[in-house]
């Protein structure tokens, strides 16, 4: 994948259980930053719908980056928006060059 196409800086996050606060010793669960990487963020579509009586929109996007360990439960932050990863597709040739993550933004952002 050409480096010029990876023009967006994104932050990959993962939900972690049992994180201990170093100051208080409290155990909690929260999103933890894994890595900031360069990626290509491409919005694909917007779907308007009604959920629980409130109008909302769901944005679908495709985020491509160099190969990483991404799970469907992870999320990606870009320009103040949270994208929920719905899958991780390795490249068709080697499976190790890049990864494509179909994502949704605007719904169920924990």
Architecture overview:
The chain has 110 residues and is an all-beta fold. The chain has a single domain (3-105), classed as Beta Barrel (Thrombin, subunit H), CATH 2.40.10.270. Helices cover 0% and strands 64% of the residues. The protein is built from no helices and 7 strands. A 6-stranded antiparallel barrel has the order 1-2-3-7-5-4.
> How many H/I helices?
0
The major sheet is characterized as:
6 strands, antiparallel, barrel
Structural shape: globular
Task: Determine the CATH superfamily.
Answer: Bacteriophage SPP1 head-tail adaptor protein
- Our Rg estimate from Cα atoms comes to 16 Å
Identify the notable features of this structure and list them briefly.
110 residues, Thrombin, subunit H, six-stranded antiparallel beta barrel, 64% strand
Can you describe this structure in just a few lines?
The protein is mainly β and 110 residues long. It is built from no helices and seven strands.
